[in-house]
Amino acid sequence: MTTNLLTRTHPRDDAAPVPPVRPHRRRRSLGSRIEPYLMISPTVLLILGLMVVPIVIVIGYSLMDNTITNPTPKFVGIANYLTVLGSPAFWGAAANTLLFTVVSVVAHMVIGVLFALMLNSKTMAKVPRAIFRAIYILPWIFTASVVAVLWRLLLDPSGVINYLLESLGLIHEAVPWLGLPQTALIAVTVINIWSGYPFFMISLLAGLQGIPSDLYEAARVDGAGPIRQFVSVTLPGLKPILYSMALLDLLWTTQQFTLIWATTGGGPLGSTEMLSTYTYKLAFNSYQFSLASTSAVLVLAASLVVAVFYVRRQRKEERR
């Protein structure tokens, strides 16, 4: 009995230890490594299919002769780039785009700041403030095609704007604002400003509400007036938002197509021709797809420069 009990309670020392088997941990480890890639794979495939592959194809087209109409395209190198860069029409469109973009972005910032300050003012009651917010944001709700149709009716020679100006005695006859080379670019710029300022207004209004009120109280104690408070407190608080939004608006405005195409189509006499409409006409009016691809690549390169500044700015803000 004693021997059996001892044998049961004390196993033999020379028994070989059983190694631990952990297949589940290995499987879990492998699955945890693959899982992040599986989760981002749909987004990666979409980016590749909708952005990277088309960009590579367009760059390839820009290095060939007329690829679609020619069954056997030939490699021409930078010949298309020299042709586009030597075209007066391209530089005219670039000048119009630059003027259109700079004026629009500056006006968006100024109007957005002014309206945001007004809506953030505590001297205005809550109900009127809510009504004005709803009214001021309406242009941002409309699509570009709706905005174009609306303003074409307003700027028509028999439209409301000409009627009001004639009633006030500012003009003596109806003016075709979108039909004259002298006024067409100004008209489409005003339309773009009207349709784009609510984005700045809402974003800056959120930024104003994030500035601590203690800073304004301290400025008032130091004897700072409204202008000094705006320069020393408001602008520094809004500076990151203004910088990021200006870069975004710069990208969006340079690529504006629908509004221009639906109002003037780049006319009259090329006075409102933008790089976007110039590229479109090369492809679908003249069927010069290689030159259109070249123009698109040049616009992409210019946009990438702005995008790099925007990404660097965002990274600096994240580090802070």
From TrEMBL:
User: What is the topology of this protein in the membrane according to its UniProt annotation?
Assistant: Multi-pass membrane protein
Localization in the cell: Cell membrane
User: What are the protein's UniProt keywords?
Assistant: Cell membrane, Membrane, Transmembrane, Transmembrane helix, Transport
According to its UniProt entry, this protein's organism is Leifsonia virtsii
Q: Which residues form the ABC transmembrane type-1 domain?
A: 94-310
| Name of the featured protein | Sugar ABC transporter permease
Per the similarity annotation, which family is this? Belongs to the binding-protein-dependent transport system permease family.
UniProt cross-references to SUPFAM superfamilies, sorted A to Z: MetI-like (SSF161098)
What InterPro entries does UniProt report for this protein, alphabetically?
MetI-like (IPR000515), MetI-like_sf (IPR035906)
Task: Locate the transmembrane regions by residue number.
Answer: 37-63, 99-119, 131-154, 287-311
